[in-house]
Amino acid sequence: MTRQNLQALSSLSALALAIGMSTPVYSLDQGWMIEEVVVTAQKREQSLNDVSVAVNAASAEDIKTLRMSSPNDIAAIAPNVDFKSTLGGANPAITIRGIGLNDFNVNNNPSVGVYVDEVFVTSPAMMNFTMFDIDRVEVLKGPQGTLYGRNSNGGAINIIAAQPTSEMQAYVTAGVGDYQMREVEGALGGALSESVSGRISFRYDDREGYHDNVVTGGDLGFNQTQAVRAQLAYDNGESFTASIGYTHGEQEFGTIPFANFGVINPADGSLCGNSAILANRCVNDQGWQRPSDDPLRHWLNAEEESLFNDNQVDSDMAVVKLNWDLGDYSLTSVTGWSRLDRDWAEGASDHDPQAQTNITLDGRSTGIVSAITKDERIEQFSQELRMSYAADGYSWMLGVFFSEDDVDTDNYADFKNLPLIGFDARWAYQQETRSGALFASGEIELSDTLTLNLGLRYSEEERDFEGATYAYFDALAVDVVDLFFVGALTPAATLAEATIATSQWSTQDSIDEEQLSGRVGLDYRPNNDLLIYGYVANGFKSGGFVGDFVFDQIAYEPYDSEEVVAWEAGFKSTLLDSTMQLNGAVFYYDYQDMQTLVPVDTPAGTVFPLANADQASVAGLELELQWLPLQGLELRAGLGYLDHELDDEGLGNHIPSTADLQLTGLVRYEFDVAEGVILALQSDFKYTDSKYIEAFNMDLLETDAYTTVNARAALSDEAGKWELALWGKNLGDEQYHGFGFDLGTFNGTAGYMFEAPRTYGMSLTFHYH
Questions:
Q1: β-pairing verdict for 93-96 and 81-84
Q2: Is residue 625 a part of any domain in this protein?
Q3: Long-range pairs for 90-94 at CB < 8 Å and ≥24 separation?
Q4: I need a labelling partner for 310 at 20 to 30 A (CA). Which of 14, 466, 615, 644 fits?
Q5: 236-269 pLDDT, tens per residue?
Q6: What is the mean pLDDT of the chain?
Q7: Which 8-state DSSP code applies to residue 73?
Q8: What does the angle CA 464 – CA 466 – CA 468 come to, to the nearest 5 degrees?
């Protein structure tokens, strides 16, 4: 980090702290104030303003008005948070303050922990679920572990479903929109007896794909989801409570295709410049140029369209919670089990529809130019026990955690029809991970205004991996052989008889890692309206194994764990007679051994396995404001600034998926339009500065700055029994990509995964309570 950046950050920090410590210059007696937001970020119910860590929270009302229907939508509420779609849009990746997962394989664990009803989601593949009947979402920033079962070094996202209540509650929402969207969501709950309550929730969502296939006239990327959740809760008013929840989901979807742009100059065969590539002035290795620069239009044959639109997912999740209230003590047990079974295909690549189709060895045409099909099964079990104690002057919590997850995959890459580099590859692996931890945290009141926070965690993770890549190369595939293979190439009659890779590109290996981490912090509360806090903490994420096909044995070498040491100071202030909330934080992260794709020299050339970069650092600032200047008017604003540096020879200077600047904003105004009828108008936006999507910082794959704007207008009655709403998302139809590949070596293109375009619709909701 430069001296100028440090000075600028220091000045901004001083200004933020001065604002946070200021007192109101006048008093308002207007009869309205910001409602208290209660979160469980620290494993107990607290006001958001009492939590000494940077937290963004979305209530059930926020989730509804912002149309947060999947984990990807959570980024809208928080600066310095990035969500991106990866291969086919099936494995979302999360980055918070520069700490995230720069991988797209299902056997890797996210660096930002996602918890559903306190159960850790072990794989990115399991994060592509629909959110329905949700009570709140909490986004914690910075290393987490002394309060959570599974350690995470970038932060934690808590998604908490609405729970059964003894009062009768019900709602149903039906909506329609463009792309022939139809959705229905609802819930029904209440007392089943004096001590047992229940709740059942459901969601059905159906829409066409955002992407058009010019060749067939069909669409790509459709989604049809149906999910149901059943819950029971027991509470006899004494010392024991229990709950059980079971969620089942089924999804049929179409893979989001890459928009492939040629990278070859048609005049002389040289490599085009970036501006020419993105302006669609270049061709692929077959001399074909996209007829349109619209990234949502594609050229795939009918067989490819059918393959990429034939994907399905079945998932189940069960959570059992037990709690004993023992006076000053309490004991909590959280047991989780989840399963995912997914069959899908990705790798769609725009091409000349008249190009030669794939011819198998027995003379049949598959019609496929390039495709990857995957059969993936993931199963997870976890058990967490927590004992807590609270008394005047101090409190503590002790926890023990164990989890086991199994990943079993069988994958096939069909690239036979790529000129000069055609090959088939089948890769399969089984991975078993066991994670255990002991963790503790405590608070000691040193005085009426000063509190010491302490946390300690011991983690141990064992991972067993067995996998292999079996490849058959076309006899003319000289380019790929030169790149990835040294020695005599023996073509096989069939893929099953391939002699290369069976013994050379396989592994059966294990890793076993231990880590001690902790947290030390101080809270200073001079009055009820101001909290100033500071802490230092470290986070840990274990190493692992690549889950992709490989063409060099070195790629199967396990990568090491990564660690983050974080320093943070912040404030949370309530101003103007509780009509304004201003929060801020400054922080510095020392990021060691970041897991990412790095270059490794081998006898066959340079390969790019998932490995560890040497070092990275992040310094940043966040400011967030919520203000009610008039009755019925709400303003929110957020600023996130990051100065980040990647320090590794052979890589770029910037951390992947990390923008220097993000801005968020929301305006909401409610007013009476008739007796008993309210109109609510709302608009929100998020600005994200340009960012690199991979560690090499290739200009070709850089995402330009973009702004998404959403809006909603809703009529409702004062009692909240009905609501009619019109909504629009990405109203400016901003086109931006969060993921991409440079495929120049393979087919002369660069491929980009674009996010959703402008969408709009309406919904009608009825409540009973």
A1: antiparallel
A2: yes
A3: 90/125, 90/128, 90/253, 90/255, 90/311, 90/342, 90/344, 90/346, 91/124, 91/125, 91/127, 91/128, 92/124, 92/127, 92/128, 93/124, 93/657, 93/739, 94/127, 94/154, 94/157
A4: 466
A5: 888 999 999 999 999 999 988 889 999 999 999 8
A6: 85
A7: G
A8: 155
CA–CA separation, 334 and 464 (whole Å): 26
Cα separation, 180 vs 175, in Å, equals 11
Cα separation, 152 vs 99, in Å, equals 10
Token duo for residue 185: 């969501």
427 within domain boundaries: yes
> What distance in Å separates the CA atoms of residue 243 and residue 285, rounded to the nearest whole number?
59
Angle, vertex CA 398, rays to CA 393 and CA 399, nearest 5: 150
Whichever domain contains 16, its CATH number is 2.40.170.20
| Contact of 281 with 162, CB cutoff 8 Å | no
Residue 665 · residue 684 · CB < 8 Å: yes
Answer whether residue 675 is part of any domain: yes
Q: Which domain holds residue 50?
A: 3-352+366-389+396-768
Closest to 155 (Cα-Cα) out of 200, 210, 101: 101
Q: Convert the pLDDT of each residue in 157-204 to its tens digit.
A: 999 999 999 999 999 999 999 999 999 999 999 999 999 999 999 999
Closest-CA residue to 429 (of 480, 470, 486, 479): 470
- Structure token digits, residue 553: 């044995």
Residues 6 or more apart whose Cβ sits within 8 Å of residue 313 = 128, 249, 250, 251, 253, 340, 341, 342, 344
Question: Closest Cα partner for 315 from 339, 292, 297?
Answer: 339
